[in-house]
Design brief:
4 strands, Glutathione S-transferase Yfyf (Class Pi), Chain A, domain 2, transferase, single chain, 4-stranded mixed β-sheet, Glutathione S-transferase domain, Glutathione-S-Trfase_C_sf, alpha+beta, Glutaredoxin, transferase activity, Glutathione_S-Trfase_N
């Protein structure tokens, strides 16, 4: 059994997809980040960085309870645990390259694009332009990689695809004001549409929908989500 610490945001969504694809048994542990539950001592023992997702594998290596945090680390851990979605052995360098391209590029720049367009108290044109354009550049890199191929790595669906899916699913927030945010990226759109229609992806999108997560972006939520903006006196 795996304890899955979750909030309905892109990085936990990747792990939800992997869990649903592999059929691993898991128990959902909602973490309401707008209420600040990620900063509670109990959760910090699971992830000292105070971020979701995180998992605790009750039957980890050697039968020991094992914690894993950061979405890329979790995807790799679960892929190695199950022997699934790692692609061919000869593709491992490419797999790692694209997995970390998402974690160091697509995710952070998409996240900052969302932040400055939707959450920042001041609409700063430089910041909005910087992060939105850079997120779009990462989309183009993915789009070019997917030209003439079905998946990001090799011939099969892998954790690299799952990782990218988590953020591309939020394209409407990264590129607001467009009817079809993936329209300029035909290969990426085709890839996303196919993965998003997988039965496991449909189930992953439903994970956590029965939990009443806080929705309001009020002062409590801002302090919880952006604590560095409010240093202790």
């Amino acid at each position: 059994m795996i304890d899955f610490y979750f909030h309905p945001t892109p990085d936990p969504a990747k792990v939800a997809l992997m869990l649903e694809e592999t059929g691993l048994e898991y128990e959902l542990r909602p973490v309401d980040t707008k209420k600040g539950e990620q900063h509670l001592d109990a959760f910090l023992k699971v992830n000292p960085n105070g971020k979701v997702p995180a998992i605790v594998d009750r039957a980890g290596p050697g039968g020991r309870e094992t914690r894993v945090f950061d979405s890329s680390a979790i995807l790799l851990y679960l892929a190695e645990k199950t022997g699934q979605y790692l692609g061919a052995a000869t593709d491992r360098p490419e797999l790692l390259s694209w997995l970390f391209f998402v974690s160091s590029g697509v995710g952070p720049f998409s996240g900052q694009s969302v932040h400055f367009q939707h959450a920042a108290p001041e609409k700063l044109p430089y910041a909005i332009n910087r992060f939105r354009r850079e997120a779009e550049r990462h989309y183009r890199v993915l789009d070019e990689q997917l030209a003439g191929r079905e998946y990001l790595v090799g011939e099969t669906y892998t954790i690299a695809d799952m990782s990218a899916w988590g953020w591309i699913a939020r394209a409407a927030f990264v590129r607001p004001g467009t009817d079809d945010p993936l329209a300029p990226f035909a290969n990426l759109k085709r890839w996303f549409t196919e993965i998003d229609a997988r039965p496991a992806a449909i189930r992953a999108r439903a994970v956590g929908t029965g939990h009443a997560f806080k929705q309001e972006m009020d002062e409590q939520a801002r302090h919880a989500l952006f604590p560095s903006n409010y240093p202790a006196a």
